[in-house]
Amino acid sequence: MRGLFGRRRCAPAAGEHVLITGGSKGLGLELARLYAARGCKVTVVARSQPDLDAALDQLRAAAPAGGAAPPVLQALSADTCDAAKLKRAFEQAEAQAGPIELLICNAGFSVPGLFIEQGPDVFERTMRVNYLGTVNSVQAALPGMLARRSGRVVLVASMLGVLGFAGYCSYAPTKWALRGLADCLRNELQGTGVGVSVAYPPDTDTPGYQVEMESKPALCKAVNSALGSELFPAAKVAGVLVGGIDAGAYHLPSPDVGQNLLVALMTGLSPKRFWLPVHVVLGPVMPLVSSVFAWVADRAARRHNQEHGMPPSK
Hints:
Strand order of the largest sheet: 3-2-1-4-5-6
Main location: endoplasmic reticulum
Low-confidence stretches: 1-6
Helix content: 40-55%
Largest sheet: 6 strands, parallel
Subcellular location: Endoplasmic reticulum
Distance between the termini: 60 Å
Keywords: Endoplasmic reticulum, Lipid metabolism, Membrane, NADP, Oxidoreductase, Sphingolipid metabolism, Transmembrane, Transmembrane helix
Domain Ketoreductase: 16-203
Radius of gyration: 20 Å
GO biological process, one term: sphingolipid biosynthetic process
Strand content: 5-15%
CATH architecture: 3-Layer(aba) Sandwich
Order of helices and strands: EHEHEHEHEHEEHHEHHHH
Structural class: alpha/beta
């Protein structure tokens, strides 16, 4: 079904199968809870079995009571970096719950740190999990979707997929890579019946965020604070994302209005974030807005470096 402005709506109904990687906690679990409450068949995939067991209890509690049969809810242990084992997990999920109609690639992590203080192993591991783990997930689900000419793939990038600042040299490039992958997939899958969406979650209050804060450098915190970043509840972020998925949006919305405007500046050849006339009106203004944000971030970094013993360049 086509919605407003030609979007193909994608609202998984009760009984349809939604699979979420990184779905045992945080944003992934909140997304899973929303779909379980809708009566969808839900599979969450993650590495930690204790986390999966706890997540399954929450999904059962969220699922609607009554009905002819309880919805199929699954929690499967698999590492997205192991393509063979991940494929077997997806096959097991489909054997129990039927074809995957919606795949949400949410698995990922961040280890903030200054570039000169992080070794190549951090960059390699982050790219392997955040980018190649997503590639493995899509490759496991996409052939079936293409055969059925039905389905949607959601790649969860980050606000750092459209901007970058101090402390995220090992993380932001992996999310930029996901944005590039999403753009290519969207174009490649035209006319196949399979849709693609990309999400840009803002700072979200999750267990992963709390771990991230433990290693976040002071410089990173200074720039983040200067930009006025807000920490959003995971449930609120998940609700906004699900609304965008239901509408068939390519660029999924965020509860952070400023971030939505930045996404709108960087749509490239992909569909525009807002209605085209809105982009035309914003066109002369947005370069000024983004330049102000860039100036604020750079000024915060300069001040921090000068105050902590790093002399300004000549």
